[in-house]
């Protein structure tokens, strides 16, 4: 494996291997010295054209824990403001010694271009490209679910419900692909305006009622942020109506199975798509997801920079 641009880059064995390795690497948290020498001498660059808290910092911690050098590229203080292109920026970073470039970009396909246009030979990791994909988020979500079931467990037969702004969600797309690959069944629910065409072709069933979907007793309820910043038009009648129809309110929380998991990739809009009661409920694994982000990104960096790339 040379790049991780899409979950479609992985087969079942590769995805399972990454998850197993991430589970193993997560144990480094229990050590006093949380560091391994595996990537000594390698350089990882975080090239983020969009804001991030969780992904950027967890890649930074992951690279540091594997003893790689980590450079954070800041769009606001770089030559981007002078009009430098993505290609020229990436080639510049490679000339400066980057072995891997972790890229987040508002344009769907940006990571694919860097990986497959032949511009550079560094490994490319997609940290979110427009509304397309966010593969390491899906991996950390799957790791979190597996831990709940018992580390190393199979996801076959598991029922996952993903709710909200599916249209603008790279998290939803990567999750549908990965969860299907791992054998889970996936239902997406949201207002018709926020369900993208073709999501059913990816293997997800589509629901137009959160309450009916909850009645089917899913094992996992994954709430998504409404991405107002990607909306150029009217996708919902009003925020109040959205909250009433599609929010995981205190009342709806009572209908979530007692042994189900509640996930949210963050950042959460408390009181909108998820109530504080749901976010802080014992069934919520939001902070476990964040924690698993480090282990998953360690596994990916290790695989790309220390593994066999044939
Ligand atoms: N889940 C996620 O991608 O969060 P950030 O935008 O904070 O990186």
Keywords:
globular; alpha/beta; binds phosphoric acid mono(formamide)ester; Rossmann fold; 310 residues; 2 domains; four-stranded parallel sheet
CATH class of the largest domain: Alpha Beta
CATH H-level superfamily title of the largest domain: Aspartate/ornithine carbamoyltransferase
Give the number of helices: 11
- Poorly predicted residue ranges: none
Provide the residue-averaged pLDDT. Answer: 94
Structural class by helix and strand composition: alpha/beta
What is the CATH topology of the largest domain?
Answer: Rossmann fold
Which CATH architecture of the largest domain would you pick?
Answer: 3-Layer(aba) Sandwich
Query: How are the strands of the largest sheet arranged?
Result: 7-6-5-8-9
- The total beta strand count reads 9
What does the radius of gyration come to? 19 Å
Count the domains: 2
**What spatial form do the alpha-carbon principal axes imply?**
globular
The secondary-structure element order is HEHEHEHEHEHEEHEHHEHH
Largest sheet composition: 5 strands, parallel
**Residue share in helix:** 25-40%
Strand fraction: 5-15%
**How far do the termini sit from each other?**
7 Å
Bound molecules: phosphoric acid mono(formamide)ester
Oligomer: single chain
